[in-house]
């Protein structure tokens, strides 16, 4: 009897039951009799978050394109569903076949956010899988993990057999080939792990010798035109966060913002061609029926052919009433032409990320954006018909003062003033919102050595900003305690795994959700292991201190990151890759900015 049949009407008593039933349009079904390798792709967050993630759709489609391999999906259950599973002694099932996770050959997690780590342990436990790697002696299930958090895999090394570092498309095919071969030959787990440790981009904790882990180079997909892209993605049956076609323009970023892990760890920049993107967009729209295409990247307006691409896409989208959105824009590369193009179907707001309120602090973080460039972009947006703008800022950046915090509110007032200039004094006020996050020092960035400020001080600065913001501005800020624990796990070593497990056993789950996050559990868990979490988050590192993630080679030389940190403290900016090669090492000396 299948999962749905066995649970019957009990699913109707839980929140969002469609998140657990599968059967979506585009979901891949295969005959188990023909399957030689089964993979459970596990997203350690809820269905509505996971099904909005492009990386999941890419790897799901890629693995299922292989003959005799079936990739199914599983997501972190909400508390009501977890209670139902545990009370009925039912292991966490996959969406496609309803099989328990313990019955798969491979269990693959994507690590998008540190506060999802307890969900990894919870999903393994719910799936009937021992959480510790040492307790899984057989060839299957093999537990692997990838994603941005694999750039510092150490907090999870007690639980994961192998980590995939970097772009997943090519290494996943190699990984599947080795697993098929190992299963066919009846290899033991240790033999398989030795084979995996020799693959570029794979880190196997069990292979670490007395001398410490060997360097592991991040895998890089050089050509996005030939890389797999899901033009027939799974279409959810229920509401998810992003219901749209996600068109990836390029990977990496040429800008060099010193806080941004995604920008530094994904160098060099690699772009898809306009022809490829147009073909993918049309195919995905025809399959899904979505009424929006989002041009995704770290800075969509930096795509070298953005105007041409938008013009060609609009020829297709406008007659079909499909909206074109650019969710990530640089104010200094935003144009009135782009403003007009994003309004062809429906009016919407735009998002810019100045990050800091003063030019001094923007120079510290190497934003390379002036106040006038930001205000000119906002005025162009208002003049072009956009009714609002959303501005992203950070609190707690290195060297930040109260003057920098107050300048954020002053900048918001200037944006409102630019709206009056563009629209006239009698126009309805603009929708200006400020979204403020807390600075978290991340591995493989120039600020990986910097300290984070105390959550209480972060809260004080947030309150200072709130008191000075104009009433017409909507202000939202991230919880400082959440960011504090994110920093603890981001910079943690292998010893933090024991505290992570203690937090999970005490009831920590879905920590990325404010209604479920319980910082007291985390504090008590670390105390129970004799570990001071503040040592990871609130302490600056020296140049000669061994960093837990030093064996992961993301592409940029460590000495270059240190030099950028020193330039930050001196308030000195570095030109972006399009202007001059800084010799960071990611292009092996041949940095050229965008490659198209």
Written account of the structure:
With 596 residues, the chain is of the alpha/beta class. It is built from 20 helices and 17 strands. Helix 6 runs antiparallel to helix 7 (189-197), helix 14 runs parallel beside helix 15 (455-468) and helix 15 (455-468) packs across helix 16. The protein is globular and about 70 Å long. The chain starts with a helix and ends in a 27-residue tail after the last helix.
Summed up, what is this model?
The protein is an alpha/beta fold. The chain contains 20 helices and 17 strands. Helix 10 (306-317) links the parallel strand 11 (292-296) and strand 12.
Describe how the helices and strands are arranged.
Elements: H1 3-7, E1 37-43, H2 47-50, H3 54-64, E2 69-75, H4 79-87, E3 106-110, H5 117-126, E4 142-146, E5 162-164, H6 169-185, H7 189-197, E6 202-203, E7 216-217, E8 245-248, E9 250-251, H8 261-265, E10 270-271, H9 274-288, E11 292-296, H10 306-317, E12 323-325, H11 336-341, E13 350-355, H12 359-364, H13 371-383, E14 388-395, H14 402-423, E15 431-438, H15 455-468, E16 473-477, H16 480-490, H17 496-505, H18 519-528, H19 534-537, E17 552-553, H20 558-569
Parallel strand pairs: 1-2, 1-3, 3-4, 4-5, 7-17, 8-11, 11-12, 13-14, 14-15, 15-16
Antiparallel strand pairs: 5-6, 9-10
């Amino acid at each position: 009897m299948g999962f749905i049949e066995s649970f019957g009407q009990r699913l109707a008593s839980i929140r969002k039951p469609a998140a657990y039933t599968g059967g979506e349009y585009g979901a891949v079904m295969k005959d188990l009799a023909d399957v030689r390798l089964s993979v459970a792709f596990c997203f350690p967050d809820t269905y509505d978050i996971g099904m909005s993630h492009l990386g999941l759709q890419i790897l799901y489609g890629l693995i299922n394109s292989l003959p005799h391999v079936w990739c199914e999906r599983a997501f972190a259950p909400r508390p009501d569903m977890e209670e139902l599973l545990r009370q009925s002694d039912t292991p966490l099932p996959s969406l496609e076949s309803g099989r328990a996770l313990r019955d798969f050959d491979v269990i693959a997690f994507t690590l998008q956010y540190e506060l999802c780590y307890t969900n990894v342990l919870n999903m393994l436990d719910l799936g009937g899988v021992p959480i510790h790697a040492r307790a899984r002696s057989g060839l299957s299930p093999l537990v692997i993990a990838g994603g941005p958090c694999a750039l510092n895999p150490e907090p999870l090394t007690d639980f994961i057999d192998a980590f995939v570092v970097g772009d997943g498309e090519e290494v996943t095919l190699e990984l599947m080939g080795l697993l098929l071969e190992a299963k066919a030959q009846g290899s033991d787990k240790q033999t398989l792990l030795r084979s995996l440790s020799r693959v570029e981009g794979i880190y196997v904790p069990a292979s670490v010798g007395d001398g410490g882990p060997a360097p592991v180079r991040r895998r890089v997909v050089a050509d996005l035109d030939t890389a797999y892209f899901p033009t027939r993605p799974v279409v959810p049956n229920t509401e998810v966060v992003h219901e749209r076609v996600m068109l990836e323009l390029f990977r990496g970023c040429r800008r060099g913002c010193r806080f941004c892990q995604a920008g530094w760890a994904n160098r060099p920049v690699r772009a898809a061609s306009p022809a490829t993107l147009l073909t993918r967009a049309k195919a995905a729209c025809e399959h899904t029926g979505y009424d929006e295409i989002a041009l995704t990247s770290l800075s969509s307006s930096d795509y070298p052919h953005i105007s041409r691409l938008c013009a060609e896409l609009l020829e297709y989208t406008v007659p079909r009433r499909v909206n074109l959105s650019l969710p990530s824009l640089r104010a200094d590369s935003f144009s009135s032409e782009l403003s007009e193009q994003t309004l062809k179907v429906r009016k919407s707001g735009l998002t810019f990320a100045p990050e800091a309120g003063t030019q001094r602090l923007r120079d510290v973080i190497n934003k390379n954006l002036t106040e006038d460039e930001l205000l000119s972009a906002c005025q162009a947006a208002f003049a072009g018909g956009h009714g609002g703008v959303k501005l992203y800022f950070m609190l707690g950046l290195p060297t930040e003062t109260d003057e920098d915090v107050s300048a954020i509110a002053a900048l918001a007032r200037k944006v409102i003033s630019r709206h009056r200039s563009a629209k006239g004094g009698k126009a309805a006020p603009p929708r200006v919102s400020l979204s403020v996050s807390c600075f978290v020092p991340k591995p493989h960035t120039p600020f990986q050595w910097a300290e984070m400020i105390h959550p209480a001080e972060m809260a004080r600065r947030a309150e200072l900003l709130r008191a000075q913001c104009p009433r017409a501005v909507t202000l939202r800020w991230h919880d400082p305690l959440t960011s504090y624990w994110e920093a603890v796990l981001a910079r943690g070593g292998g010893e933090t795994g024991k505290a992570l497990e203690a937090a999970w056993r005490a009831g920590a789950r879905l920590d990325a959700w404010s209604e479920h996050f319980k910082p007291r559990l985390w504090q008590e868990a670390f105390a129970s292991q004799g570990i001071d979490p503040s040592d990871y988050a609130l302490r600056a590192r020296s140049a000669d201190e061994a960093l837990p993630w030093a064996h992961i080679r993301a592409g940029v030389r460590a000495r270059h990151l240190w030099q950028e940190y020193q330039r930050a403290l001196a308030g000195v900016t570095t030109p972006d890759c399009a202007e001059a090669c800084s010799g960071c090492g990611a292009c092996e000396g041949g940095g050229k900015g965008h490659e198209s």
